[in-house]
Amino acid sequence: MAETLSYDEIYYYDTLKKGITVPVYLKYGSQTVDLKAKIDTGAENCIFERKHAELLGIEVEHGELQSFSAATSSFLAYGHELTINSFRNRICFNRLFCQRRIFHAQCSRQTRLARPRETWAD
Hints:
The chain has 2 helices and 7 strands; from the N terminus they run E-E-E-H-E-E-E-E-H. With 122 residues, it is mostly beta strands.
């Protein structure tokens, strides 16, 4: 027996780019920032560039400090709770903004988004 899937919304992303990039809306207080982000449904944390926190009026260093390690580098980030919207979904949880690399260079890596596993299917 064949099954049919239907969707309320369809989003066509650029298949020539690595990963899936989707529109995301960050909100902190009355400030909002629109951006495109990569989705990693298996990640434990969400990491955005520092400039997004500053556009929202967040005092980055007042967040919860956490260290992150990747295959070839490491960096510090500060966690802040804010609202994120992607398509019609709204969720609130900690966000971690890229702070500094060794030698105090500001991070400039591509923005990445990860939704927590427990809310992905909600």
